[in-house]
Design brief:
heterodimer, A: 149 residues, alpha+beta, 4-stranded mixed beta sheet, 4-stranded antiparallel beta sheet, 34% strand, B: 85 residues, 3 helices, 5 strands, globular
Chain lengths: 149, 85
């Protein structure tokens, strides 16, 4: 199983990504699609990353997931650049013979992306305010729950 | 030996640059000492790098700690805690 990892500016199609995970041996596919939320008058979200490090970091997260669960396919797509509310920003899809492995692997990867992949978000609001999103303690906590497995 | 420094997110904005090449002086042997040396340049550096609690480090594209040695290092990135996904 070679994970499919992409960091790109282009939009992606969750249905096409999900269909691509339906390969021989898969009895279950779990997917997550993250969207830009329009809270508090947000008009745009700019995603910066660390070219060179990002894909390696995602690959390590994917390989870690593949060691922990029996996966037949795993896809991670993360967008960078400028996005507006409603746009898709991240996709994680895991396929396995059994639903538990697919769901847990997908959940694990999305929790890790929040805390261990070199992406930074900058918000712009309708009233002219803008600023970098601070890391959240509950994201760190979410990731922590996987450490014992 | 020359080290390539990379800056991301608000660290990049505060310093007004995304990269530079530096030659740390003798005695600057860890990431921690390097950040103190950079902060001593004053201006945006002093402000952006004063509070290490707000900074994270990658050495040659791997997350690292402040106590990591500089010997043999080619690239160091300084940035805020990540917020992807």
């Amino acid at each position: 199983m070679t994970p499919d990892i992409r960091v790109q500016k282009e939009v992606f199609d969750p249905a096409a990504e999900s269909a691509g995970l339906a390969i021989d041996g898969a009895g279950a596919i779990a997917t997550f699609t993250g969207l830009v939320r329009g809270d508090g008058g947000l008009v745009a979200l700019e995603l910066e990353h660390y070219p060179g490090m990002t894909e390696d970091a995602l690959r390590r997260i994917a390989e870690d997931a593949a060691r922990r669960w029996a996966l037949s396919a795993l896809t991670i797509v993360h967008r960078v650049g400028r996005m507006v509310p409603g746009e898709r920003i991240v996709f994680v899809g895991a396929a396995s013979r059994h639903r538990g492995d697919a769901i847990d692997a997908m959940h694990f990867v999305i929790d890790w992306l929040k805390t261990d992949a070199p992406f930074w978000k900058r918000e712009e609001f309708a009233d002219g305010r803008s600023g970098w999103v601070e890391a959240r303690a509950d994201d760190i906590e979410q990731r922590g729950r996987w450490s014992g497995q | 030996m020359a080290i390539e420094l990379l800056y991301f997110a608000w660290v990049r904005e505060a310093l007004g640059r995304d990269a530079e090449t530096i030659e740390p002086p003798d005695g600057v042997e860890t990431v921690d000492a390097l950040i103190d040396w950079l902060a001593a340049r004053g201006g945006g550096y002093a402000e952006a790098l004063a509070d290490k609690e707000r900074l994270r480090v990658a050495i040659d594209q791997e997350f690292a700690g402040f106590d990591a040695p500089l010997a043999g290092v080619r690239e160091i990135a300084l940035f805020p805690p990540v917020t992807g996904g």
